């Protein structure tokens, strides 16, 4: 293996409370029902537009409403004064060791790219990622393999030399659609059973277990 691709939300960073708090704030602002934090474990994973869509009542899921709330969400999320986001326990040492061993490390996230960059700068200032990609306007979101293909082409490796590490069915489907090895993590937002059902080739319960697979 040469390249380890990571999902971001639920894999490297625990962002659930900030995502849930931000979405609830916007729902409340526009007069829609809010949700308990645990519900957001199922709402996230397919990008922020899909998050807004899932959080809205079914009868309110119009293009116009989603567009308005999406813009409001991005503004609120980016300016939120109190952050509960943190790297998961063991992630920083894992990334440091991967770099010391000579692996390429990269992020391929469905979070919109403009939000990914400041999060990486804030929470991983001492980690030299070789590439960081969030969802970019006009490009397909995961589980489409576009972001994986873009990453491996940019970094000059083959898909046979790549692991994709994530916490959800979206990530496992992305890895399998791209033809790279799918590694599911159980410390994120989804259950182990979901990861296995969607083709995880390995399951790990702590970041250091990734080194054992390598």
From TrEMBL:
Catalytic activity: 2-phosphoglycolate + H2O = glycolate + phosphate
Keyword entries, A-Z: Hydrolase
Pathway(s) per entry: Organic acid metabolism; glycolate biosynthesis; glycolate from 2-phosphoglycolate: step 1/1
Annotated EC: 3.1.3.18
GO molecular function per UniProt: phosphoglycolate phosphatase activity
GO CC aspect terms: cytosol
GO BP annotation list: DNA repair
Family: Belongs to the HAD-like hydrolase superfamily. CbbY/CbbZ/Gph/YieH family.
Protein name (record): phosphoglycolate phosphatase
Protein's organism: Sphingobacterium paramultivorum
Lineage: Bacteria, Pseudomonadati, Bacteroidota, Sphingobacteriia, Sphingobacteriales
């Amino acid at each position: 293996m040469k390249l380890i691709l990571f999902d971001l939300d639920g894999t490297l960073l625990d962002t659930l409370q900030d995502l849930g708090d931000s979405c609830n704030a916007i729902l409340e602002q526009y007069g829609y029902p809010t949700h308990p934090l645990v519900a957001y474990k199922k709402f996230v994973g397919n990008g922020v537009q899909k998050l807004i869509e899932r959080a809205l009542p079914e009868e309110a899921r119009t293009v116009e409403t989603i567009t308005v709330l999406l813009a409001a969400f991005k503004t609120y999320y980016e300016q939120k004064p109190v952050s509960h986001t943190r790297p998961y326990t063991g992630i920083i040492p894992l990334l440091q060791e991967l770099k010391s061993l000579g692996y390429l490390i990269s992020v391929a996230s469905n979070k919109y790219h403009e939000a990914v960059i400041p999060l990486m700068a804030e929470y991983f200032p001492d980690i030299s990622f070789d590439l960081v990609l969030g969802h970019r306007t006009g490009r397909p979101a995961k589980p489409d393999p576009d972001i994986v293909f873009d990453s491996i082409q940019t970094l000059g490796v083959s898909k046979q030399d790549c692991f994709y590490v994530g916490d959800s069915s979206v990530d496992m489907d992305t890895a399998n659609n791209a033809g790279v090895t799918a590694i599911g993590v159980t410390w994120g937002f989804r259950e182990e059973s979901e990861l296995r059902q969607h083709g995880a080739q390995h399951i790990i319960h702590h970041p250091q277990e990734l080194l054992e697979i390598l």
